[in-house]
TrEMBL record:
Name of the protein: Cystathionine beta-lyase
Molecular functions per Gene Ontology: cysteine-S-conjugate beta-lyase activity; pyridoxal phosphate binding
Modified residues (N6-(pyridoxal phosphate)lysine): K208
Stored InterPro entries: Cys/Met-Metab_PyrdxlP-dep_enz (IPR000277), Cys_b_lyase_bac (IPR006233), PyrdxlP-dep_Trfase (IPR015424), PyrdxlP-dep_Trfase_major (IPR015421), PyrdxlP-dep_Trfase_small (IPR015422)
Organism field: Mesorhizobium alhagi CCNWXJ12-2
Reactions it catalyzes: L,L-cystathionine + H2O = L-homocysteine + pyruvate + NH4(+)
């Protein structure tokens, strides 16, 4: 589109304008929410050849195209599929790229439902699943087998925020002929662009920051030119398209994601630094903190941090964790994140097989929302006092 090439422009310009062109719909700023199964053809020949842009609701609509094109502009990808949840954004590419007899390497600090899918459904389909240490870096080469078809990464890690050396892993994986996938939900394409660092397929739970309001489930999967045909084919084969209202809500969320993320980043870092000075705290797991073991990698590859990190309480167990959580008044107790409101959850590392680490105390994951930082600190201080008093 002449005059609308936003690819070379700043990230906030892309967030504001990527996707639909208002001139396609009589100048209305936003695209229509197209509710569609059937698409009509003008004549039998067009129908037989399917020679028109839209042919069936599962294969894309102007609404899903608007979001997919906006995500492509942010990710630098050749194509994006929109699926009904972040978990579907993990399972669909794995199903599309793995076959019986293949071997898949998955980071041990992965989002638990990803592990659950691999250990149950992938294993049942005859795929050999192996977990690797998040700090493996170029050492992943030693774990590659002739039948390794996918290396799955997530950085920073779920709950414990270990950083992975993505370029080193991608190089070794490609040398062994494997496709590299990354769950990039934490950073969003604003703070890390996986395809620029050697990843082939970038995965997002758009439920989090893109949606931003804790009221929508959606996932996006973006591929480079080489992997796009296979990913798209898998998506069409599985029929996992998403409802247009949810797709629209995520496109709407994208427009403000940049300003929301700036606030999440600033507040989370302020609270993380403050937590490092508080008694009752053993450690703060936030990769943008200088004290974090993965800080150098984060600094090298990422250009920002989002609003979720963990705090390790100084000793104790479930009782201390529950006392902390039950004392909170502003933070809600809930699992999803990326919304405008603050949340806390006690996390377990019981599923880890490689990256267990020494036990220092209960781990509480905090999602820092858009509230006033001083109010959030006061709430956390109440939680810390309650945990210490047990
Ligand atoms: C890192 C990560 N990936 C994927 C998902 C799955 O997203 P959804 O809740 O939309 O299925 C989550 C959800 O918490 C997540 O934290």
């Amino acid at each position: 589109m002449a005059g609308r090439d936003f690819d070379t422009m700043g990230i906030h310009t892309r967030l504001a304008h990527a996707g639909n062109d208002p001139r396609d719909y009589f100048g209305f700023v936003n695209p229509p929410v197209v509710h569609a199964s059937t698409v009509l053809f003008p004549d039998a020949a067009t129908m037989a050849a399917r020679s028109q842009k839209y042919t069936y609701g599962t294969r894309g609509t102007p609404t899903s195209d608007a979001l997919a094109e906006a995500i492509d502009a942010l990710e630098g990808s050749a194509g994006t599929i929109i699926v009904p949840s972040g978990l579907a954004a993990v399972t669909i590419p794995l199903l599309a790229f793995l076959s019986a007899g293949d071997h898949v390497l998955i980071v041990d600090s992965v989002y638990f439902p990803t592990r659950n899918f691999a250990n149950t459904m992938l294993a049942r389909l005859g795929i050999e699943v192996e977990y690797y240490d998040p700090h493996v870096g170029a050492g992943i080469q030693a774990l590659m087998k002739p039948n390794t078809k996918v290396v799955f990464t997530e950085s920073p890690a779920s709950n414990t925020f270990e950083m992975q050396d993505i370029p080193a892993i991608a190089k070794a994986a490609h040398a062994g002929g494997a496709v590299v996938m990354m769950d990039n939900t934490w950073a969003t394409p604003l703070y890390f662009k996986p395809l620029d660092h050697g990843v082939d397929i970038s995965i997002h739970a758009a439920t989090k920051y893109p949606a931003g309001h804790s009221d929508v489930l959606l996932g996006t999967v973006s591929a480079n030119a080489e992997c796009w045909p296979k990913l798209h084919q898998g998506f069409i084969t599985l029929g996992c398209c998403s409802g247009p209202d949810d797709v629209y809500q995520v496109l709407r969320g994208l427009r403000t994601m940049g300003v929301r993320l700036e606030r999440h980043q600033e507040s989370a870092l302020d609270i993380a630094r403050w937590l490092e000075t508080q008694s009752g705290v053993a450690r703060v797991l936030h990769p943008a903190l200088e004290s974090h073991p993965g800080h150098a990698l984060w600094k090298r590859d990422f250009c920002g941090s989002s609003g979720i990190f963990s705090v390790v309480l100084a000793g104790g167990g479930v009782k201390q964790a529950h006392a902390f959580l039950d004392a909170l008044r502003i933070f809600g107790l809930g699992y999803s994140w990326g919304g405008y409101e603050s949340l806390a959850v006690h996390v377990s590392l019981a599923d880890r097989v490689v990256a267990k680490g020494p036990y220092e105390g209960p781990i509480i994951r905090l999602q820092i929302g858009l509230e006033n930082v001083e109010d959030l600190k006061a709430d956390i201080a109440t939680g810390l006092a309650a945990a210490t008093a047990v």
